[in-house]
Write a structure and sequence with these properties.
The complex is a heterodimer of chains A (about 350) and B (about 600). A two-stranded antiparallel sheet of chain A has the order 1-2. Chain A has a two-stranded antiparallel ribbon with strand order 3-4. In chain A, a hairpin with a 2-residue loop joins strand 3 and strand 4. Chain A has about 350 residues and is an all-alpha fold. In chain A, helix 2 crosses helix 6, helix 8 packs across helix 11 and helix 10 packs across helix 11. Chain A has 11 helices and 4 strands. Chain B is α+β, with helices and mostly antiparallel strands. Chain B has a 5-stranded antiparallel beta sheet with strand order 1-10-9-6-7. Chain B has a 5-stranded antiparallel beta sheet with strand order 2-3-4-5-8, with helices on one face. The two termini of chain B are about 95 Å apart. The chains are: A mainly alpha (about 350), B alpha+beta (about 600). At the A-B interface, helix 1 and strand 1 of A face helix 2, helix 3, helix 4 and helix 9 of B.
């Protein structure tokens, strides 16, 4: 598994890391020399074929493309959109992760297959392959594990392998495609791999901010640049960093002020505590990616904050301990709007 | 089929051994070994990478957690890989269990490390957040204070802010110093600072409160983050990786040694197999060669048979002719044989009659008062040339016994001649035995030459006169029996020579002179008696003859003769008598009788 496709797109063996490091050392001069002097570990994972203007920038642009088996991606896409995966042919992955709506459903809580609302807000599927864990509470290390949970979850697809595999096998297109693409044919692992591979292909490069990071300073106007300045100054970037501008650590929601405002605490509100059972992990969530944040309202794990302004204002109160000035909120929101990327050449949009 | 069972079994057994040994010697999959080493190496490298990343984060050189996350993800993948290779280590259950133990201990440590570092990441992010904000606030406040002379000169705030900045720097530079206590005290002072109206009017209050809050957070999170960092860095992951590596290498060495042993055995068995196959091959080749030879012979035979078959009719005709001719010849021969038989039967009858005719009569013998004489002759089926005679001439008694070689008419005629010549010589007063025998030889020699036959004759002649006995001539032994039965065996080889072989035998004739007292006697015989065989192919022999004669010697001569003949018949039994049997017993009467 170690040398298999999990590491292929983003990482590589240690040797390869060193090689690419020395390659960059030629290209990026002083910074690379500095980073070598401070230790090899400083090196970020290599976005292979792209130039990065500033090495120590905490945020990296998304790659323009990812090398994946296009046939498996197509097969995964079909599964992702196919309601036949559910036991009553009612819902599919795309029911809650609508690609036309920013990769989520723009609802505070999705409607489950029983007709009741879900317990937690559906995050976007876009760029999820770059998150260090999946789901708000970080229960899964891989997209495969998350997909399997979603398939079994009674609130989601609600299907068993015993039910699903014969069902898919009976569909000639699926049986043939799996037979062609995998030596093992259609089975648990290959179904999950196909879906996860498709999800990994769902990236939204070419946001204006990524262009800015690549050296196009005109991509952001003055107000947006001031927003990024504030983003760093207020320390937002200490959690929202990396290639996905988030998705690299867990953090407590509401360090300075209570997020819940006295409302009844649900189990979902306990966050990572539900995984680890540790007291200090209560109200701790995975720091979400801010990419496409402008088109994935509403916000936070319960979807209770409807606007980006509201979300930024709470972050000021909750994580920084102060009420942000309106002008600052506006600048930050303007900056956050530059994080909207493109999928299949078109800029992402929120649901109408 | 039975011949093949043994080699087949041997080869199968050896092949099975070779297969087993090969499997045992190949238990170490080199690919798995290499992958294992690479995975251990990757684990080692990634652990170091994680440490480097964490230190980079703590030092502020690393602004993103992504490389750290990636290193952990790779580390888990490497551990998963190692775990999957475990299934391949089948050589030794105990060793494998040992490795599994090492691996699971390492995995647990890695999980502890990850947990500690997750907390570190959160804490460090908060610290970083506060630091950034603290610095920007501090800068803004200092700027404000410095540019407003009323604040700068009116109260202690500028000095306090300056001290806070210095202490914060000191703390960051050396987290283990007591700068934290000092900073805490200064922040406390700032928190309880009495604001002037001008400060409140400038809205400094909020910023100052934020500065206090974040300053306290910095102190708190710096300690917390460093404690977590220490916790993560002191976990024995490095040692455990080295232990795992050592355990694996030890396992591998043992497995390699074991495999080496099996390889040696494999080579041995393979050599044996090759040798055995070579042996079988050679044997097979020899067999094949022999088969080819046999086949060639068979083909030739077949060809001959075919040829024979094709010429059989001709041959049958030929053979029938030959048989007819042979039949004719046999019929002719049969007729001849019948004639010859008749002739031969006649001849034999004549010879037998001649033999019997010429023997001395009982009445003749009885006239010889001084000597008691008994003779016996029985011709064999083919009639031999035996001869004995007793002739009285004056006071002399001449008696002798002889045997012409061969059988049939010629032998009989020759015997008759010898008898006639003896009587002629006797009547001619030839008394000197040497001369007597020499002339007799000349007569017989001349006649045998004329007859053109290859025959001769042994003959011993005895001359009795007044108690003296002269013996000459070559024949069987002469038995002189003294009164009381003591037998003296006289060898006659030097007393004469075979008659009819050479012209003159005078040189060889040496007569023997001896006395014959009353009761003494002489037993003469032909080889028909001593060389008679019984059913066990044993000859009668001179010894047995002597024994019988000795035992019955006191009896009359005729009795002695009958006893010998009876004993001889017992000896011969049912066997056919092959030679003439002749015997002559001469015994000097006791005077009183």
């Amino acid at each position: 598994m170690y040398f298999a496709d999990r590491g292929r797109s983003r990482s590589s063996t240690p040797t390869k890391n060193l090689l690419s490091l020395s390659k960059r050392a030629w290209k990026s001069g002083l910074f690379a020399l500095l980073s070598l002097a401070f230790g090899l570990a400083v090196a970020a994972p290599p976005p292979a074929n792209e130039m990065i203007a500033v090495e120590v920038e905490p945020i990296q642009p998304l790659p323009l493309s990812i090398e994946l088996n296009s046939e498996i991606v197509r097969l995964g896409e079909k599964l992702f959109h196919d309601p036949r995966l559910s036991h009553d042919n009612a819902i599919s992955c795309v029911s809650c992760h609508n690609l036309a709506a920013g990769g989520d459903d723009n609802l505070p809580l999705s409607i489950t297959n029983t007709g009741k609302p879900d317990v937690i807000h559906a995050p976007t599927v876009f760029n999820s392959g770059f998150n260090f864990r999946q789901t708000w509470r970080g229960a899964f290390r891989t997209l495969e594990q998350q997909a399997e949970d979603a398939l079994h979850n009674p609130r989601h697809i609600n299907m068993t392998w015993k039910g699903l595999l014969p069902k898919l096998q009976a569909i000639p297109d699926y049986a043939a495609a799996f037979q062609r693409l995998y030596p093992g044919g259609l089975n648990r692992d290959t179904v999950l791999n196909a879906i996860a591979t498709y999800e990994r292909s769902l990236i939204t490069p070419n946001s204006r901010f990524d262009k800015y990071l690549r050296g196009d300073t005109a991509a952001l106007n003055a107000e947006e640049q001031r927003g990024y300045q504030l983003f760093r100054e207020y320390g937002c970037i200490s959690c929202h960093h990396g290639i996905n501008i988030g998705g690299t650590l867990f953090q407590k929601l509401g360090i300075f002020s209570d997020y819940f405002g006295g409302r009844e605490i649900t189990q979902a509100d306990l966050g990572r505590f539900n995984v680890t059972g540790k007291e200090e992990d209560k109200y701790v969530f995975k720091v979400p990616s801010l990419r496409n944040v402008a088109v994935t309202a509403p916000y936070f794990h319960d979807g209770r904050v409807a606007t980006l302004e509201g979300a930024v204002a709470f972050m000021g109160r909750g994580q920084l301990g102060r009420t942000l000035a309106n002008a600052d909120i506006q600048a930050l929101v303007r900056f956050l709007h530059t994080l909207t990327g493109e999928y299949q050449g078109k800029s992402l949009e929120a649901a109408p | 089929m039975k011949n093949f069972a043994w080699p087949f079994l041997m080869v199968t057994l050896m092949l099975a051994s070779v297969t087993y040994l090969y499997l045992q010697s190949a238990v170490i999959d080199l690919q798995v070994h290499e992958k294992t080493l690479m995975a251990i190496h990757a684990v080692e490298t990634l652990d170091v990478q994680i440490n480097q990343n964490v230190l980079g984060v703590r030092a502020g050189l690393q602004r993103s957690y992504q490389p750290l996350n990636q290193a952990f993800q790779n580390l888990y993948a490497a551990l998963d890989a190692l775990h999957s290779y475990e299934q391949e280590y089948t050589t030794n259950k105990a060793d494998t269990a040992h490795l599994v133990q090492h691996l699971s201990a390492l995995r647990q440590t890695v999980q502890f490390k990850e947990d500690a570092l997750e907390s570190f990441k959160s804490s460090s992010a908060t610290l970083r957040n506060s630091l950034m904000y603290f610095i920007s606030l501090h800068y803004r406040l200092m700027d404000l204070v410095n540019t407003n002379s009323d604040i700068l000169n009116a109260n202690a705030l500028p000095k306090l802010l300056g001290q806070i900045g210095n202490r914060a720097l000191q703390l960051l530079q050396n987290p283990l110093s007591n700068a934290d206590t000092a900073l805490f005290g200064l922040l406390q002072s700032l928190d309880t600072f009495k604001w002037t109206d001008s400060e409140i009017s400038r809205g400094l209050e909020t910023d100052l409160k934020s500065l206090v809050t974040h300053g306290r957070l910095i102190v708190q999170h710096l300690q917390e983050a460093d404690a977590l960092l220490r916790q993560a860095m002191t976990l024995p992951s490095g040692e455990q990786i080295l232990a795992l590596k050592a355990a694996y290498l030890a396992y591998h060495t043992r497995a390699e040694q074991r495999a080496y042993g099996f390889r040696q055995m494999l080579y041995g068995t393979a050599l044996l197999l090759v040798a055995y196959l070579t042996y079988l091959f050679i044997r097979l080749r020899n067999n094949t060669r022999q088969l080819i030879i046999a086949n060639t012979q068979l083909q030739q035979a077949k060809q001959e048979v075919q040829e024979y078959a094709s010429t059989l009719e001709h041959k049958v005709t030929e053979r029938t002719d030959e048989l007819a001719q042979a039949n004719h010849a046999i019929s002719h021969l049969n007729a001849c044989l019948k004639q010859e038989n008749l002739r031969m039967g006649g001849e034999l009858e004549i010879t037998r009659r001649l033999q019997q005719m010429i023997l001395p009569r009982e009445t003749e013998l009885a006239k010889i008062g001084e000597l008691e004489i008994a003779g016996f002759m029985e011709a064999s089926s083919e009639v031999g040339g035996d001869y004995y005679d007793v002739l009285q001439h004056g006071e002399h008694v001449k008696f002798g016994i002889g045997d012409v070689t061969g059988h049939g008419l010629e032998s009989g005629v020759l015997m008759l001649m010898a008898q006639t010549a003896v009587r002629v010589l006797l009547l001619s007063e030839i008394n000197e035995p040497k001369r007597f025998l020499t002339i007799l030889n000349q007569v017989l020699y001349a006649n045998i030459k004329r007859m053109g036959v290859d025959k001769n004759m042994t003959l011993v002649l005895l001359d009795y006169h007044a108690g003296g006995l002269r013996i000459c001539g070559q024949h069987e032994e002469v038995l002189v029996v003294r009164q009381g039965g003591r037998v003296e065996r006289l060898d006659t080889i030097d007393m004469g020579f075979m008659l009819g072989m050479v012209t003159d035998i005078s040189e060889h004739v040496n007569p023997l002179q001896m006395s014959l007292e009353p009761g003494d006697g002489v037993v003469l015989y032909t080889d028909g008696i001593t060389e008679a065989f019984n059913a066990e192919q044993q000859m009668y022999g001179v010894e047995r003859l002597c024994e019988v004669v000795s035992r019955v010697w006191e009896q009359p001569a005729a009795h002695i003769r009958d006893a010998v003949i009876a004993d001889l018949r017992r000896h011969i039994g049912e066997k056919v008598v092959l030679d003439d049997i002749s015997m002559l017993i001469v015994k000097r009467r006791v005077a009183s009788a």
